[in-house]
Amino acid sequence: MPPKKKKTTRRKPARKASSLKKKRAPAGKILKKKAPQPRKAKQAKAKAGQIKAAVIGKVTHYFPHVNAAVLKLKLPLKAGDTIHIKGHTTDLKETVTSMQINRVPITEAKKGDEIGLLVASRVRAGDMVYKPSK
Q1: Structural class in CATH, domain 53-132
Q2: Distance between CA atoms of 123 and 129, rounded to whole angstroms?
Q3: Cα separation of 101 and 105, whole Å?
Q4: Cβ of 128: how many Cβ atoms within 10 Å?
């Protein structure tokens, strides 16, 4: 069999250097740089579907056989508090009924604790937990 011929590939043309040129001042004039303008503070605007609440924590794991979620807390949480769990496919509001740390029931959890929380329906890792403002 005769050897196969190699395919030739076309190269893309190089970009023009015209966009890289610096601005020059007309003859006899000095080009001054503009002073940077101070940035304006962005105002928080409530969009449709945005939650007005304090972020309590984040779901790190879910156990479907017992309907329990593991939360990493950023704020304290007590039994009886109302929470809102919101995620990509999750939107759940409920009252905290049962919490545990290392399989020991508790009534209060402080900032930084990783707790197990009984939930009514499926939640996913990465869902945010909010405490609705009153």
Answers
A1: mainly beta
A2: 10
A3: 7
A4: 17
pLDDT tens-place string over residues 40-92 = 655 545 455 565 788 999 999 999 999 999 999 999 999 999 999 999 999 99
Burial group, residue 99, by CB count within 10 angstroms (0-12, 13-18, 19+): buried
What are the sequence ranges of the domains in the chain?
53-132
- Looking at residue 98, the DSSP 8-state letter turns out to be -
DSSP string for 37-86: PPPPPPPP-PPTT---EEEEEEEEEEETTTTEEEEEESS-EETT-EEEEE
Residue type, 5: K
Local structure of residue 1 (DSSP, 8 states)? -
